[in-house]
Amino acid sequence: MRPRATQRQRVNQFDLICFSHLRWSFVFQRPQHLLSRYARERRVFFVEEPIFDDGPDRLELTVSDENVHVVIPHLKHDTLDTDAAQATLLRDLMAQQAIRRYVLWYYTPMALPIAQDLEPLSIVYDCMDQLAAFKDAPPALLERERELFKQADVVFTGGYSLYEEKKHRHSNVHPFPSSVDVPHFARARAPQAEPEDQRILTRPRLGFYGVIDERMDLELIAGAAAARPNWNFVLVGPVVKIESSSLPRAANIHYLGGKTYSELPSYAAGWDVALLPFARNESTRFISPTKTPEYLAAGLPVVSTSIRDVREPYEKLGLVRIADSVSDFVRACDAALAGPSGPRLAAADAFLAQLSWDETWSQMSQLVERAVQRRLSGNGRASTVDTADGATRIDGIAAGE
User: Fold this and answer.
1) What b-and-e string marks burial along 192-220, b requiring 16 or more CB atoms within 10 Å of the CB?
2) Total number of domains in the chain
3) Do residues 332 and 368 share a domain?
4) Is the pLDDT of residue 28 over 50?
5) 232 in the same domain as 363
6) What global pTM score does this model have?
7) 193 and 340 share a domain?
8) Is residue 188 located within the same domain as residue 306?
9) Tell me: the pLDDT tens digits for 182-234?
10) Residue 101 is part of a domain; what is its CATH number?
11) Which domain holds residue 229?
12) 364 and 335 housed in the same domain
């Protein structure tokens, strides 16, 4: 029998190849938080969707500040079989980089054909969103997700509502809702110089940062701005998949564009209330907004529409006010502006103490290592055991704890 340390070393010795529908440089969110932590201990290759241009098929390989190898396939405009072309480029990359022992980590099921002939140590599906419900989702996405569920060894979900939707489709599903880097966003609580494009705005300021797309309730923003013309609504983030002409315009609505992750606390520091003005539709049914705990870490009162993963646990704990109509939303913002900050900050800090990205990554990492160990020992995919308290455990690890 091999010494225990040798077996653990075998389990830990692998590279990570991630397939993502998101660009590494777009918005710093769940994939970046998790994979940058993986990159501290192993090589991580983050494979993005292709860019089409006039040159020959090739891979653009760069190393990010977080030590993640960012891989962008460039394909000719007239490429007929894009999956086959990307598969060829991927195998060239693996040969060039001597990638021999690896785990495949999927954010998009659409990448499944690219790696269909590979022999990974394990397959992970981190299902952070219900992608099929998003605007312009590929028709083949649902079928490829069904196939990915068959192949995956372990599945993570980006929130509890998504977990309820997916838990019956695989034997090893674990909910990992949005976590937070508390020290980073707690910088917003300290006095500091304001960003130049925000300091000219009078108070009160009600702010949102994130992607501005079909998930935003634009009518709610327009209505609230009209109801309170003395409030300034600050929207920070890129506009994606919707026309800029569809955005509500008013003297007190300000679109400041995309900002880097490092800049977000300085913008939040100048707000009086943080907003989650999401529409209630299929694209928001299962979302678990990362910005909810980030706003709380920044010390801000938060007003949200009735998103399920915001109501539970944040509203239940008294950390977020919920309202959907314009009149109710404005009243909730009035209450947030007038409410005392001391008890709210204490309650938020107590809750956030157990919600770090480091802890989330650690738990995920353990589950991945268990899946690798099972394959190495010839036991195939991990199976789950229902405990008496209703939690799901794998070899002693509780899902979502």
Assistant:
1) eeeeeebeebeebbbbbbbbbebbbbeeb
2) 2
3) no
4) yes
5) no
6) 0.88
7) yes
8) yes
9) 999 999 999 999 999 999 999 999 999 999 999 999 999 999 999 999 999 99
10) 3.40.50.2000
11) 182-352
12) no
Quick one: 126 and 194 in the same domain? no
Q: Is the pLDDT of residue 388 over 90?
A: no
Q: 215 and 307: one domain? A: yes
- CA 327 vs. chain centroid, Å, equals 31
CB atoms within 10 A of CB 351: 16
90 and 190 in a single domain? The answer is no
